[in-house]
Amino acid sequence: MTTTCITNIGSLVTNDPAAGDGSPLGLIENAAVVIEGDKVAWVGPAAKAPDTDEVVDAQDRAVIPGFVDSHSHLVFAGDRTQEFNARMSGRAYSAGGIRTTVAATRAATDAELEANLVRHLDEARRQGTTTFETKSGYGLTVADEARALRIAAAHTEEVTYLGAHIVSPDFAEDPAGYVDLVTGEMLAACAPYARWVDVFCEKGAFDGDQARAILTAGAAAGLIPRVHANQLSYGPGVQLAVELEAASADHCTHLTDADVDALAQAADTTVATLLPGAEFSTRAQWPDARRLIDAGATVALSTDCNPGSSYTSSMPFCIALAVRDMRMTPDEAIWSATAGGARALRRDDIGLLAPGARADLALLDAPSHVHLAYRPGVPLVSGVWQRGRRAY
Fold this sequence. Notes:
Layout: E1 3-12, E2 28-36, E3 39-45, E4 54-57, E5 62-65, E6 67-69, H1 81-87, H2 98-107, H3 110-126, E7 129-135, H4 142-153, E8 158-164, H5 175-183, H6 185-190, E9 196-201, H7 208-220, E10 224-229, H8 237-243, E11 248-251, H9 257-265, E12 271-274, H10 276-282, H11 289-295, E13 299-301, H12 315-325, H13 330-344, E14 361-364, H14 371-374, E15 381-386, E16 389-390
Parallel strand pairs: 1-4, 1-5, 6-7, 7-8, 8-9, 9-10, 10-11, 11-12, 12-13
Antiparallel strand pairs: 1-2, 2-3, 5-14, 14-15, 15-16
């Protein structure tokens, strides 16, 4: 099995405090990483690196774990340029805009949906993302939801059933009937392709009782819950996520003190996943990451890449937003975009660079990870390894 040493790393983020300076990032200066097959075999000072078959000179640049994007919506067709343009001219965002993408997605062929998914995955990979979660939710029929998940499952192991994105337009006068479909025939068709079940618990989408029924049915089918929670208004989503031991409560924009306390107490179970791209693209209130972190909650950062409310695949951009507008430090933001995302996916093999972890990493054209926030908008990722292979 071929071994590769990436050496002369100016600053290495391991996310393993024991491996480096004792901080959460486990920083090692003048470092090296040895890859064997698809795993990390060794990390440490470059001067102590073992001999390998191949050597890559990082030239004093920084290396970080590959980004873990634990929340995206990438199986869709069309775009919503007109909606975005109108919103930037003063119209508020509401959940109903999803219906535009539903119509386009239903009309698209499988090949068109897959080509669009692959294009966005490649775009994200070039920016350092090596693990992708993605959801259904733009079909809202049994056949369209199942095909979305089947297409997604061919490209990532982190697939989420989101038949409960909004009430299907076909059931506009019968929301209870749609919940029955989502928890019955649609769930049975979709569960074989998915790991997770999600619900948009929000005014205009699904209330607390409906969300509980959907998540409970998904869990009974072997899927792990996660929740779109408290994005547009205060509501029951966060409390429901904690109650059901969901892997994540996503958005967390409008939180009461009780919500923050619940997420802090459930820090080992339910991650607060923040999605600043959505607030940027809708001119909405920013999530208060500082409040969550100071309370003791576990925080992840993700893109929420979707055609309506956050059409970005760039984790570096989300890091810059989190530091500038959500009061995170650069160290907290990079941890949340890597190890935090791994926690939200209940994975211990990604989001860090330690022996035995998957060899997913990004080489930055910068001396430090801080440059991701310090130089916003600059394409700093100059190399990506995914599963031990040079992907970019």
